[in-house]
Amino acid sequence: MVTGASRGIGRSIALRLAEDGHRVVLVARSADALDTLRAEIESAGGSASVATCDLADGTAVNDLIESVVSDEGRLDILVNNAGITRDGLMLRMSDEDFDEVLNVNLRSVFVACRAAARPMMRGRFGRMINISSVTGLIGNPGQANYAAAKAGIIGMTKTIAKEFASKGVTANVVAPGFIQTEMTEALGSAVLEEAAKRIPLKRLGQGEDIAHAVSYLASEGAGYVTGQVLTVDGGMVC
Ligand code: NAP
User: Fold this and answer.
1) Directed axis angle between helix 144-164 and helix 108-122, to 10°?
2) d(CA 22, CA 30)
3) Atom of ligand 1 nearest to the CA of 54
């Protein structure tokens, strides 16, 4: 199951996991975009289903995982990728903008991992992969809410890794740097060009760069890797 699969990084992750041979449950709010992606996966010989959900609603997230497990019979890989920004300098940031970002970017990840843990333990196999950000590692002016949520994902994932390691369930984080999606397009081309110049690898990342990392962490071969943060940022934070 991949959240935030309707566009951007989540779309790339879903395509890659389908290519890897997994049946993928595509989650977001935009039903049309998810249907288009499902058709693309199926026409390439893959298998996918669509589940619309507003991740701001914790009860809906819990129900979603339960229905995925009951419809599909199992849940092996959970990629919590969906995320939002509500940027503003600390002194001007409203409580609402803080709460909304924490709710979608962190609380939904907690609820989804908690709901997925039992079915994964029953199957003695699980891969929880949570998408954080380099902002969660080093902070970023204007993103106190986002940085708090993304740093929270890291602490929570390390805890989940320790709690479920003996049950065959791993939990890891991928922390992207600047990736070319609608989220970063909002910054404007001048800012993005400047950002690319400051990245050691001299380019913005693509969704596929993150999808490769997720594919590895989801694989059988990554069974001895848990509680880690894999930074995929062209060398920005090292
Ligand atoms: P994006 O292009 O804005 O896509 C965000 C995805 O999240 C969409 O599929 C959106 O689907 C979904 N989403 C947002 N709010 C939702 C909600 N309430 N319920 C369900 N789905 C929701 O963002 P992106 O750049 O691909 O980012 C994906 C993840 O990577 C995020 O967690 C982001 O914080 C992280 N990240 C991105 C970058 C970057 O440079 N792009 C860097 C570091 C980390 P709907 O609108 O259809 O619901």
Assistant:
1) 20
2) 22
3) 19
Distance 189 CA to ligand 1 centre (A): 19
Residue type, 102: L
Domains and CATH numbers, the chain: 2-231 (3.40.50.720)
Residue 187 · residue 206 · CB < 8 Å: no
Angle between helices 207-218 and 8-19 (to 10 degrees): 50
Q: What is the pLDDT of residue 174?
A: 99
Q: How far apart are the first and last CA of the chain?
A: 30
Catalytic residue among 34, 46, 146, 176: 146
Task: Let me know if 146 is a catalytic residue.
Answer: yes
**What is the C-alpha separation between 209 and 37, in angstroms, rounded?**
19
3-state secondary structure at position 169: strand
**Could you report the per-residue pLDDT of 39-83, keeping only the tens digit for each?**
999 999 999 999 999 999 999 999 999 999 999 999 999 999 999
Range with lowest mean pLDDT among 17-26, 46-55, 180-189: 180-189
